[in-house]
Structures are given as structure tokens and as C-alpha cells.
Design goal:
The chain is of the alpha+beta class. It contains 8 helices and 20 strands. The strands form 4 sheets. The chain has a 6-stranded mixed beta sheet, sandwiched between helices. A 5-stranded antiparallel beta sheet has the order 13-12-11-14-20, with no helix packed on it. Strands 15-19-16-17-18 form a 5-stranded antiparallel beta sheet, with no helix packed on it. Strand 16 and strand 17 form a beta hairpin. The model has no long low-confidence stretch (mean pLDDT about 90). It binds adenosine-5'-triphosphate.
Length: about 350
């Protein structure tokens, strides 16, 4: 199997809606996935990630809208004519067949000549590092090895795109990290446009070029992992991608510039083109604990420590600021032991790290 960069195709999804009976599960999905991209569908359980992936593969009820592979609308094609490879969460290996037979199965079905099957299966097994286990049955393999067989079996037929439905969720944490790296390397080697479904934001962040965040059958935002983390376009995305502090309140124009007043009555200067009700969102590491003089160009907040968790490289504090609890991640340094529950502290917030959401 050779890297097939020449055949890389993008995937375009236009106005896709899909219902199970009366229940609409995908509600007007629009998406452009670039050729060769490693793309993730990220969202909580029930958000429609698997349904969207399965719709691309041709499984499940027929959706409304369009699914294009390159220029070709594949929506009306049966799964086996789409040239799309899908790896299921359960792996779905044949238990009575050896690893080699499992991987060869799809080629035999396609009536590929025997000598070519041998060569392609060898290549696929080498690619996933399982050549030496070719004569074993799935029950004689670890979870990670079974996962690799499932991938080899899918890529051996040289699909135009690779779809992976939570492929790492049955593996333990260490193996998952290793498989993440292996999967990314394999994807780069093959140059296959790949979609990966996960509910784990760390997994999506580490593996993907771009992510679509889904909630309730709607794409909430699409972007590179850091873009989504730094500039969430709504509260759902802010919360789903890591810990987010959120201050709800109003922005007023005063004589000396603009002031933000939280719903709990804490106020501070804040500059933003809009006025009125908004939420200010910022990450725990955007707040600093100030022992001495206030750093210039920071928003100052007074609070008291409610809870403290020492995590080694950082200390995570819960700080009560005028009736609202904010999370603060402070890089651990010697000499901070005196900050205890009940301590009064000053916080400095970097205004440029605040995202104002309406
Ligand atoms: N065969 C089905 N019949 C009826 N409803 C279904 C069917 N499959 C999925 N659903 C519903 O569609 C919604 C989306 O399900 P889907 O499996 O796509 O979510 P998901 O984001 O992949 O979740 P998970 O991470 O739990 O797999 C859910 O509310 C689910 O109950």
C-alpha cells in the first residue's frame, strides 16, 4: 500500500438533516473537510457524532441534503459503492478467522487476484506492526492489537476516506495515548482524509488538524484545536473544551470609559465595542494571584480562597469573587504555601484573554 496523496479527496456536507422517526438528530449540518485532513467530530454523548459519521459511510436512515466526496454526491450510493472505510468501536473482527484472513476478507470479496491479496495484506500488516501475528485469531490478541487489525482490514482496500468511530475507547489510558500517536503517523503515511469521532476533548486536541464541535445535532463551531480553546464562539464550546470561567453581567458606558458589572455586583473597567448583557469567558490560567504590586494593564479582582488543589506542576484554586466562584490555575512555585482556604487574595486578569459572548 502506497501513500495515495494523488487521490486525496475532500468531503463536503451541505444542509444535512436526518431523523429517526419523528426525532430529528442532525439539524442542517454544513461542513467542508479538506483533502488529507485529520478531522474530529467532538461532542457529548447523544450529540449526533456517530449518526453523522454513519451517514457519510451510508449506514442508517437516508438523510436530506448532500454528501460529496470530491465532486461526487455519494448520498444515494449504498455503503459498499462509496469507497469509504469505516472502523467501528467494537472492531467487528471475524472470531473464527486468523488476522491474515480478516484483513484479506475485503479483497477476496472484491475478487482481487490471490497473489495481489497476499502482497497487499502483508503491506497492511506491516503498516500496523502486526505481520508477526498474522496467523493468530482475534481472541489471542490484546485490545490494541485487535484495533490494529480492524484498521489494517479497512485500509487494505484503499478507501478514499477513513472513518473512525471512537476507535480508542475500549483501550486503557496508556495504550490509548500510544495508539493516538500510531494512528496519526499511519494517517500521515497514507495521506488519507480521515474523520475521527470522540467525546474526549484531549483526544480530539492531540490528534486532529481541525475539530467540529457538535451539540444536539448542530455544529457549534469548527476550527483548529487551539482556536476553539482560545476563541470559543459560544458558551457550550467554551465549557466543553476545558475549564472555563464565566462572568455574566452588563457592560455600561460611563464618564470614564466602560465598566462591566457582574450579576453579583462586582465591577471593573472593560473595553468592548458592544454594550449591554454579555458573558465574559476566560480560562483559569488567565488569572494570576498577585502577592505584591498589581501588574499594569490587568483587571483587578478581590477574592477569598474556598478550595485549593495541589496538582504538582500547578495549584488549582477555587476563589470566591463577590459571590461567584472562579477557578485559578497558578503554576506551582516555592513560597506559595501560605495561601490557604479562607486567605484573602488579589487576582489579576489579562483583558486580552477574555472572550465576550452575547
Ligand atoms: N437507531 C436509532 N434509533 C433511534 N434513535 C437513535 C438511533 N441511533 C441513535 N439515535 C439517537 O440519535 C441521537 C444521536 O445519537 P449518536 O449515536 O449519533 O450520538 P453520539 O454523539 O455519537 O453519542 P455517543 O458518543 O453516545 O455515541 C441520540 O439521541 C440517540 O438516542
Amino acid at each position: 500500500m502506497q501513500p495515495n496523496n494523488k487521490q486525496q479527496v475532500g468531503i463536503t456536507i451541505k444542509d444535512l438533516t436526518l431523523a429517526f422517526g419523528e426525532t430529528e438528530v442532525l439539524k442542517g449540518v454544513n461542513l467542508e473537510i479538506e483533502p488529507g485532513e485529520f478531522f474530529a467530530f467532538l461532542g457529548p454523548s447523544g450529540s449526533g457524532k456517530s449518526t453523522l459519521l454513519r451517514a457519510i459511510a451510508g449506514f442508517g436512515p437516508e438523510p436530506q441534503g448532500q454528501i460529496l466526496l470530491g465532486d461526487e454526491d455519494i448520498k444515494a450510493l449504498p455503503p459498499w459503492r462509496r469507497n469509504v472505510g469505516m472502523v467501528f468501536q467494537s472492531y467487528a473482527l471475524w472470531p473464527h478467522m486468523t488476522v491474515r484472513q480478516n484483513v484479506a476478507y475485503g479483497l477476496e470479496e472484491r475478487k482481487v487476484p490471490t497473489s495481489e491479496i497476499r502482497e497487499r495484506v502483508d503491506n497492511a500488516l506491516n503498516l500496523v506492526g502486526l505481520y508477526h501475528l498474522a496467523e493468530r485469531r482475534p481472541s489471542q490478541l490484546s485490545g490494541g492489537q485487535q484495533q490494529r487489525v480492524a484498521i489494517a482490514r479497512t485500509v487494505v482496500v484503499e478507501p478514499r476516506v477513513l472513518l473512525l468511530d471512537e476507535p480508542l475507547s475500549n483501550l486503557d489510558a496508556n495504550l490509548r495515548e500510544q495508539m493516538r500517536r500510531d494512528l496519526l503517523e499511519l494517517q500521515r503515511q497514507l495521506g488519507l482524509t480521515t474523520i475521527f469521532v470522540t467525546h474526549d476533548q484531549e483526544e480530539a486536541n492531540t490528534i486532529s488538524d481541525r475539530i467540529a464541535v457538535l451539540d444536539q445535532g448542530v455544529i457549534q463551531q469548527v476550527g483548529k484545536p487551539m482556536e476553539l480553546y482560545d476563541n470559543p464562539s459560544n458558551k457550550f464550546v467554551a465549557d466543553f473544551l476545558g475549564t472555563a470561567n464565566m462572568l455574566n453581567g452588563r457592560l455600561h458606558e460611563g464618564l470614564n470609559g466602560k465598566t462591566f458589572m457582574t450579576e453579583f455586583g462586582v465591577s471593573f473597567p472593560f473595553d468592548h465595542p458592544d454594550n449591554g448583557a454579555m458573558s465574559l469567558v476566560f480560562r483559569p490560567q488567565s488569572l494570576e494571584i498577585c502577592d505584591e504590586d498589581m501588574v499594569p494593564n490587568r483587571i483587578e479582582l478581590q477574592g477569598s480562597v474556598k478550595h485549593k488543589e495541589f496538582l504538582g506542576h500547578l495549584v488549582r484554586y477555587s476563589i470566591d469573587v463577590g459571590g461567584q466562584v472562579l477557578m485559578v490555575d497558578d503554576p506551582h512555585r516555592r513560597g506559595a504555601e501560605h495561601i490557604e482556604n479562607g486567605s484573602s487574595i488579589r487576582l489579576a486578569l489579562k483583558p486580552e484573554e477574555i472572550v465576550a459572548l452575547r
